[in-house]
Amino acid sequence: MGKFKKLGIILTSTAFTVGVLSPISQASANVKESSERIEIQVASTETKVTKSMLINKLHAIFPDKFNFLTEKDLNVGSGHYYTDDTTIRYDISFHKTVNGKEIYGSFTFKGDDLELENFYYQPSDISDAMYPAKYSEADAQKIAKEFLAKFPNTENYKLQENGTGSDSYFNMSRPLSQPIAYSFVYSPTQNGVAISEQYFTIEVLANGEITSVYRNTEPLSKATFDSVEQKKTEADILAQIRDNLAVELRYTVDYDFETDQRKVKLVYAPAIGFNGVHALNGQWQTVNGFSAQVPKVKRVEKLSSQPLEPRKKGMTLAEVEEFAKSFLKVDPDKAKLQIDMIDERENQNGETIYSVNYTYMYDNGGIGSSFELNKATGEIIQYHDLTRDFVKSNDKTTTISKDAALNKAIEYLKQWAPSYVHNYSKPLEDAVLADYSKEYYFSFPRVVNDIAVVGDEISVSIGSDGSLRSLYISNQKIDNWPSVDKAISADKAKESYREALKLQLQYAKQSGEDKNHYDLVYSPTYGGNLLNQIDATTGEWLINIEDKKEQPLISHPTAAKELNYLVSQNVLEIKDPATFNADTGVTKGEALKILLKSLTYGYFGGYGEGDEKQSFTNIDKNHPLYGVVEEAVRMGVLKPADRFDVDATLTRQELAEWYIRVLGLEKAAKHSDIYKLNFADAGSIDPAYSGYVALASAMGLIDAQQNSFNATEKVSYADLAVSTMRLAKAIGEGNNSRFF
Fold it and tell me: Which Pfam families match (predicted)?
């Protein structure tokens, strides 16, 4: 393949994955901290792969699918590899207008055989993929299986039990204007047992088109596997885990996307740091390999028993600049430091934060980032070391021990963020040394009421030479912490865990010298979930035990399908299906919420960092519909006014106005004099709404009732469900993504 030639380094992800998408469940003992993956480009002269070779491979995998593309339509990127995987990848993509619609596609081929690693494509015609779907999930699964069979050595791949279904994101609603998509995850198997951390994901639209593929698999020609004939029985391993099972209280911080608020729950979680049991010898699987002894439970141990003084109170802009120059300085022969900008903002805790944007310029280009300081304390709350990307490390440097790295991490925290440390504990999970980045990753959990907090940690990474590689302090402002006094007993929670315990058999590679051997491991699951917790105040599982609870079935003579679909998509919330009446008039506030959840991902936050606004005097930031209302104003659905009566019943002419505004046709609707309304009750329509009513009716969004529009009549839940689905389809087919 030729020698690698580094032309530039591109950061493809941040050093840590933190914040609103943190899982609500306790991190497993052997789950590694997320680290950055560095992409390194390869000079075109160093590869023999040509554009025509990539195009031929594309057509071989997708015969007749992309015949509408010419060679000029396809763009080829530079070859690249990663620091942790030196196999060269090649990208080819297109962006073209077809039938007046913008379409895009991208493909990544890997290695000498140009194996398809990932692929994405959005077809121009998605009408058959909108509700109601042309293809069912079962139909789509057959299509995915046939596509998988095109690839060599996939005969032993099996569909993962929890790897199917239409897309959903952290219980957020999916824009219904997007096509319905089914995702299927296949894993390679050996001896009928799945190989962990390897998968082949295929996404199929409801019109039968394959639009996304991602493959994360490794060659198994040199791999060795434990024998399944020698494994211990499930009964023996279940008894072993149950006998050593312990639970403890934790606080978990979860994020509500609709309200932009953080919620805290008191939970019971497993207290032993193992992730499985070796199926052959019964040893415990830990982050650092297998152990014959049950891993010891780590208890909360604060980094400091007393509060420490802040590093520097009330830093000025000038002091921040001087500090940045000193803190970020490098050998001038290696790079030139450039402070680009210092920004001052207020975070969600009401604290003033300095964000320092900087760039290192060097021979082959430059690389930039930012780090943050707390103005009141002068302390670093976010930092990531970029110098390792252009300063070569000494390969002969001795790697410090895990304990020494932990001590260095604590020293750095006391040096750069001293006023925080008394609220945090030493890590409760063991750290690992990442093979390719040579870094130790530590997570210091916050402590409240002597209980560790999951989802509010200080993250620190330490280089093998003892240097500070990254630091991130979450420290979320939370006033209400559930009382420990209301928690169920630990014995009761432990018994629930024992009863729900099941085992999942899989092959897994361990960190060690033998990179080609796969151990046979029993992993504990609770109700089918590898990570699950019990709400300590209610005794219920945070993730539904066993299969996902069935969505309520709603009966209605004309809108049953639409109503149930909205429920299944987390758009319509019904507390008691037995008493729900779909013919009830819906309030403006509830209708607005349903409409926005239909057209967006259901995230109505982003007004908590000093940019709060209030469009209506009666809807302030403490109102439960504040985020919904302000998002509607941003989208143009509502216009700021004195008041917005969320409890008033929505009328049909008001709904027509909302729909036409969503479609961006308000200017046309305002010319009411050009429209002729042929309804029998046209005279009852408010002239201010006549243009909106005319357009909504002509587009088939809202039906007349026996030739009467009934403009001032209530909009029922059934009416809203049917018309909302029509609106979503109109947006999707028109490729109108102004808001989404």
Answer: DUF4901, SLH
CA atoms within 13 A on the CB side of 522: 25
Residue 53: other Cβ atoms inside 10 A: 14
The answer to whether the CB of 144 falls within 8 A of the CB of 210 is yes
- N residues, the chain: 740
Which of 426, 460, 429, 423 is closest to 442 using CA atoms? 460
Q: What does the alpha-carbon distance between residue 111 and residue 117 come to, in Å, rounded to a whole number? A: 10
Give the distance, in angstroms, between the CA of residue 562 and the centroid of all CA atoms in the same chain: 27
Of 444, 436, 485, the residue nearest 463 (C-alpha): 436
**Secondary structure of residue 598 in the 3-state scheme:** helix
What stretch of H or E contains 669?
helix 666-669
Gap between the Cα atoms of 557 and 580, Å rounded: 14
Collapsed DSSP state (helix, strand, coil) of residue 93: strand
* Contact between 492 and 249 (Cβ < 8 Å): no
Nearest alpha-carbon partner for 503 in 527, 469, 478, 479:
527
**Longest distance between any two alpha carbons in the chain, whole Å:** 89
Token pair, residue 492, equals: 């009761």
pLDDT at 21 over 60: no
Mean pLDDT over 367-390 rounds to: 90
Give the integer Cα–Cα distance in Å for 226 and 204.
35
Strand partners, 241: none
Contact 169, 178 (CB under 8 A): no
Instruction: Assess contact for 135 and 207: CB atoms under 8 A.
Output: yes
Separation of alpha carbons 66 and 68, rounded Å: 5
Mean pLDDT over 460-485 rounds to 91
3-state secondary structure of 59: helix
Lowest mean pLDDT among 174-183, 269-278, 607-616: 607-616
Q: What is the reported pLDDT for 82?
A: 80
Q: How far apart are the first and last CA of the chain?
A: 43
User: Which residue has tokens 């993929």?
Assistant: 129
Q: Pairing state of beta strands 224-225 and 517-526?
A: parallel
Higher per-residue confidence, 101 vs 117: 117
CA distances in angstroms from 256 to 261, 436, 601, 738, listed in the order given: 5, 36, 12, 24
Give the position of tokens 């998408």: 21
Residue that wins the pLDDT comparison between 27 and 518: 518
Name, in order, each residue with C-beta under 8 angstroms of 200's C-beta and a sequence gap of 6 or more: 148, 151, 154, 157, 185, 186, 187, 188, 213, 214, 215, 216, 217
Return the closest-CA partner of residue 679 out of 698, 663, 660. 698
Whether 426 shows a pLDDT value over 60: the answer reads yes
Compute the 3-state secondary structure of the chain and give helix, strand, coil in percent, each to the nearest 5.
Answer: 25, 30, 50
pLDDT per residue as tens digits for the range 224-248? 999 999 999 999 999 999 999 999 9
Give 602's contacts (C-beta < 8 A, 6+ positions apart). Answer: 172, 173, 257, 258, 570, 596
- Residue 635 in tokens: 């989208």
| DSSP letter (8 states) at residue 450 | T
Rounded Cα distance between 31 and 24, Å, is 15
Alpha-carbon separation of residue 23 from 360, 367, 455, 532, 690 (angstroms):
34, 31, 7, 10, 49
Q: What is the C-alpha to C-alpha distance for residues 570 and 174, in angstroms, rounded to an integer?
A: 8
Cα 269 from Cα 451, distance rounded (Å):
12
